[in-house]
Amino acid sequence: MPLEEVPDAVFAQRMLGDGLAIDPTSGILHAPCAGELISVAPTGHAVTLRTDIGAELLMHVGIDTVALKGEGFEAQVEAGRRVEAGAPLIRVDLDIVARRAPSLVTPVLVTNGERFEIVRRLLGRSVAQGELLMELRAIDGVTRAITAPDATTAAVRLRVPLPHGIHARPAALIARRLRDFDARVAITAHGRRASAASAVSLMSLGVRHGDEIGLEAAGADAQAALAAVAALLEGTTAGPSHAQAVAGAAQDTVAAASRPAAGDALPGIVASRGVAIGTAAFIARTERSVAEKGAGASHESTELARARDTVRERLRVLAAGEQGPRGEIATAHLEFLDDPDLVAAAAESIARGESAGHAWRSAVRASIAALRDLGDTLLAERADDLLDLESQVLAALVGETGSAAIELPERAIVLADELLPSQLIALDAVRIAGIGTARGGATSHVAILAAAMDKPMLVGLGAAILAIEPGTRLWLDAERGSLQVEPPRAQIAAAERELAERAAREAADRASARMPAVTADGVQIAVLANIGSGAEASEAVSRGAEGCGLLRTEFLFLDRRTAPDVATQAREYQKVVDAFAGRPVVIRTLDAGADKPIAYLPQAREDNPALGVRGIRVSLRNPELLATQLEAVLRIRPLASCRVMLPMVNEPGEVERVRGLMNAAAARLGVDAPPALGVMVETPAAALSAAQICEVADFVSIGTNDLTQYTLAMDRTHPELATELDGLHPAVLQLVAATTLAARSRGRHVAVCGGLASDPLAVPVLLGLGVLELSVVPGLIPRIKAQIRTLTHAGCRALAEQALALGSAPQVRALLRDAERQAHPQTSAVLP
Ligand code: PEP
Ligand code: MG
């Protein structure tokens, strides 16, 4: 049918391009010709194919089908792949889509029509699959005028308020609107960049609702063009939003409008605790330019192989020579470097005539897009590692030996949009006082590295930090989560004093870290460590850990692509148990799903993964996986050091099923005394059923991270809610109290292994609620042990009583700060 008959103005008015539409009678969309898939919508309802003559064909199944969020669609292909004519691209459930969408009509459009002429199209009759649909011809000699670079530029960042992100319609509207301006506008998102004049490029960015994007414009009317785009983004949504503010800001030069003023405190998410005063220094991520066309497939393949060899060699040295996260990250990078899909995708592009660099970059970017499409924070953060690897290989291709060292000032507060692990490693650690990034997540590899280097780090500070002048004095408070610009002189002096006192206190705490933590009135509290790797185990012991209260086993195998077998798991657990030398080690069974996706355990996409198949639910649905893990634990010697702990339990039946499996495995292996089996209290259900759970569990440990998320109904990975997601909310404390009361009545021991145990402000209240064991971040063990020695258990109980009666987490924090100040009046208000 002709486009005019499509019941949607965007298509009917050819805003996305010329072509025709199909009213489908079969549920498979086939490739109309051979070509490369340049985009596949994450929801599977649309694909764009670049044909061999360079025409870009968008095929959009149905109208408004983005709103189905993938229901009824199954993409059969991935972006970046080449397909032959007739290849199935999308499988469509016609019943579902016909019922839920306004129309099944499927436009097929040439989106770069300025370079192609449609010489023939079949309209108004039924067409069998494989018949000619339309014929295109490249228009020779047409080149797009490229405007000379202009000094006028503008840029903004904003969160996309559109409910379905930048899909076909907004992309078309933006591209069309920009025809009225001379300025060239680019949109950056997810580490990729697209011209806003191309609707297809915009769609292929995969921008979703709430994603942060950058708009950059260059040209005489740059600011007006930016404002127009921002207004379009705003105009399609209800209610006022951030975009409105940004559209206003775009009238001025953005740098000036968004540069934080002296005294401003920017909120951020704590990725590595600590505080620092220093001067702003920027690390920019430069995008290397690479030629698209290669000098012959055999030359380019040899070049790529040589560059990968160079990088592999360097990573091997790092992996073998570095203990802890540096070595582990190098190992993860090694795995990515030789990832068969990545290498095959690059080889295919080289065979098609691309240069080694271009082919490697496209392969890496396609993998990043796939990772990000999974919608999981942790996996998406691995995209940073891929980007890192991309730049390492591109550097090796041009003969550079690694990241050039960047001169940092003394006590630098390193600021960046995003920071790659290799960029951080390349910096002179002695000069780094702290780190702040505009984007990034608290669990990214670079955040783990910062913690291992003992550098305070804030992430998610927003684009405003990029407008800070280099050399500006900054106060980075990665205890409370704020970055203050040019703090007043008096505050700097007080902070400097505090930093010195803090350093002295830390040295003293470390000196007594191996002594037990006994309150002033004689109650001994066990302080153990939370760890996720063998290397952290010895570090924890040296910091006074009395055991491991939580071994996050999913972290041991995070970067694997296949499930670890019994022997591999047993070897890793044994290393940890050996490092703890007879002290207890609590091994948590795989906590897969939600914020901890496991690459080797693909799970169906879920609308609410935190409320989905995760933790014990995954293990009970995959009993062979659980049996393998239990068998690996049963091989550890001495087995008496080990305890097994189950995540996300809701009821006693789940514990009984695991005990059955463990007893069966023990019988098979001839083990007489299987280890103690405990439960993490992470859901309100578990807390409120603690008495029943304690009938079948040998111990309980409260996971306050998840318990807080489920009690407050706030996603723990939600960047905007990070400051409100506070385990000191009285409702969470009520659940802690209910758990300790029930457990005590059944003679069970209660530990806390969630983040609240590592929050010095929360420690007195936890003790007051009856918690006798804390499992904390290894670096904080000396400080928390020293703190416990200054408390009285009776005082903690009184404080807990008061906290339970309050109405909000900030009120509880205020109460605890007051109590802390009264106990230690000499402590300045600058530091927590
Ligand atoms: C918790 O939820 O508090 C916990 C310790 O487990 P994790 O953070 O690994 O989910
Ligand atoms: Mg948890």
What is the straight-line distance between the termini?
68 Å
Question: Which percent range fits the helix content?
Answer: 25-40%
Shape verdict? globular
> Which segments are poorly predicted (pLDDT under 50) over 5 or more consecutive residues?
141-151, 236-257, 827-832
Number of distinct helices: 29
Main sheet strand line-up: 16-23-22-18-19-20-21-17
Overall pLDDT: 85
Q: Please tally the β strands and state the result.
A: 32
Strand proportion: 15-25%
Bound molecules: phosphoenolpyruvate, magnesium ion
Helix/strand/pairing category: alpha/beta
| C-alpha Rg (nearest Å) | 29 Å
Can you offer a commentary on this structure?
The chain is built from 29 helices and 32 strands. The structure holds phosphoenolpyruvate (PEP) and magnesium ion.
Summarize the structure.
It contains 29 helices and 32 strands. It has about 850 residues and is an alpha/beta fold.
Write the layout of secondary structure elements.
Layout: H1 9-12, E1 18-22, E2 28-30, E3 35-40, E4 46-51, E5 56-60, E6 73-75, E7 82-83, E8 88-92, H2 94-100, E9 106-110, E10 116-121, E11 134-138, E12 153-159, H3 168-177, E13 184-189, E14 192-195, H4 199-204, E15 212-218, H5 222-235, H6 242-249, H7 254-258, E16 265-267, E17 269-272, E18 275-282, H8 297-321, H9 325-337, H10 340-351, H11 356-373, H12 377-397, E19 412-416, H13 421-426, E20 432-437, H14 445-452, E21 457-459, E22 473-477, E23 482-485, H15 489-511, E24 517-518, E25 524-531, H16 534-542, E26 548-552, H17 553-556, H18 566-579, E27 585-588, H19 616-621, H20 623-634, E28 642-646, H21 652-669, E29 676-681, H22 684-688, H23 690-696, E30 699-702, H24 704-712, H25 730-745, E31 750-752, H26 763-768, E32 773-776, H27 781-790, H28 793-804, H29 809-823
Parallel strand pairs: 18-19, 19-20, 20-21, 25-26, 25-32, 26-27, 27-28, 28-29, 29-30, 30-31, 31-32
Antiparallel strand pairs: 1-9, 2-8, 3-4, 3-7, 4-5, 5-9, 6-8, 10-11, 12-15, 13-14, 13-15, 16-23, 17-21, 18-22, 22-23, 24-25
This protein binds phosphoenolpyruvate and magnesium ion (MG).
